[in-house]
Amino acid sequence: MIQAVIFDLDGTLLNTCDDLGAALNHTLESHGLPPVSKEVYSPAISNGVKALLEVGFKDTLVQHDEQRLRQSVLDYYAQNIAVHSHCFAGIAQLLNALNSRGIKVGIMTNKPTFLTMPLLECIDELKQIEVVVCGDTLDEAKPSPKPLLHAAQQLAVDPQHCFYVGDAARDIEAAKAANMRSVTALWGYVPSQEVALSWNADLNLTNPESLIAHI
């Protein structure tokens, strides 16, 4: 019996694509390089800043100080963290349905605390979620199961009674290692549906509200 649902953040609860893309493009333009399109940067978002830099700078990345580029992206993003970001369609309805059924809700993201908490404060639908575990909350992040186990502990729920919903391979890997039921958010930043299905999650859902049928 499912007693809690824990969500990844970027690409699962929130569409943060355009704000992260803007941060990448700001850094590219400051180095005299052309911006990249949403089609180029969106598949990289769930894999972090390094992946964004790789699709933006391509072969020229080795010519730059990667740490400085990373800081440039993060600085711009932190100052413009919720200009375009919003919940995916169906997330508000899903959260309301979970609440009405007494199902606990938490967030486990690899996003660092200094970015996660200000972002959540800007999103009305997510402000009431009290259990939030970030990538730097513990000494390990996903795909380690430790942050998910910590989230379950904070929710006072046995991991085997939890769903973990995410849009990246490491999300499914972490859920399985934590003995949680894994759910792929196919509405998120998955590289392709074919690749996402190869992760062998317990559930593969094309929209958030469809999760209710499995609780």
From TrEMBL:
Assigned keywords, A-Z: Carbohydrate metabolism, Hydrolase, Magnesium, Metal-binding
PROSITE patterns associated with the record: COF_1 (PS01228)
Domain of life: Bacteria
GO biological process, one term: DNA repair
A GO cellular-component term linked to this record: cytosol
SUPFAM superfamilies: HAD-like (SSF56784)
Pfam family, one: HAD_2
A GO molecular-function annotation: phosphoglycolate phosphatase activity
PANTHER family: PHOSPHOGLYCOLATE PHOSPHATASE (PTHR43434:SF23)
The protein's name in its UniProt record: Phosphoglycolate phosphatase
